[in-house]
Amino acid sequence: MADENKLSADERTSFGKGAARKLRAKDLIPAVLYGHGTDPRHITLPGHETALLLRKSNVLVTLDIAGDKQLALVKDVQKDPVRQLIEHVDLIVVRKGEKVTVDVPVHIEGESAPGTIHVVDHNTLTVETEATHIPESFTVSIEGLEEGTQILAGQVELPKGTTLVTDAEALVVNVTVPAAPKDDDESADAEGGAGEAAAESSDEAAADSSDSE
């Protein structure tokens, strides 16, 4: 909850890659706060505390910007592709009771029937929900499900006050049987047949060449 996720932020006036590098060297993260018709506010966030909060998706935080308290939802996190360090954070202003559209992870629970495997087609579901009650994840149980069982987005149980935005017919999980590996003898026969065919073709070509001479 936002009451537990509090971050002290400072306004920033310097911009550009050089300024951003200097901030990150001080364990600060450049960020921007926008929404509800307000002008974007360029701020800095404490690096360590922010990184801890962002281990979860759809984090709602209470920002304290020089005494000005603001409820915000983390909308986008930009990371260095190699070091995976946070380079920039986008936050949007939210109001208590307001509904937002977010992507919520799908968590698979249990094991399907013996001899089967499950394939996840949708790792997240897009939903509309109250900003202060965003689910951390949706649990989908596959315990004992047989081959051919499919779970669609519309079948996933959602908490009260949460509405599905993803197509209800979208496939989330498919239970199937893994393809049987080719038998070694069959593979050898197939390779042998291909070799014999190639040899026959080579012999015929040689015979045709002899006849033409």
- End-to-end separation: 89 Å
Number of helices: 3
In total, how many beta strands? 13
Strand order across the biggest sheet? Answer: 1-3-2-6-5-4
One letter per element, helices H and strands E, the order comes to EHEEHEEEEEEEEEEH
- The proportion of strand residues reads 35-45%
Give a verbal description of the structure:
- This protein is α+β, with helices and mostly antiparallel strands and 213 residues long.
- The chain is 21% helix and 40% strand.
- It has three helices and 13 strands; from the N terminus they run βαββαββββββββββα.
- The longest helix has 29 residues.
List the helices and strands and how they pair.
Elements: E1 6-11, H1 17-25, E2 28-35, E3 38-46, H2 47-53, E4 60-65, E5 68-79, E6 86-93, E7 99-109, E8 117-120, E9 124-130, E10 138-141, E11 150-152, E12 163-164, E13 171-176, H3 184-212
Parallel strand pairs: 1-4, 2-6, 7-10
Antiparallel strand pairs: 1-3, 2-3, 4-5, 5-6, 7-9, 8-13, 9-12, 11-13
Short description:
By secondary structure, the chain is an alpha+beta fold. Helices cover 21% and strands 40% of the residues. A hairpin with a 6-residue loop joins strand 5 (68-79) and strand 6 (86-93).
What keyword list fits this structure?
four-stranded mixed β-sheet, 40% strand, 3 helices, 213 residues
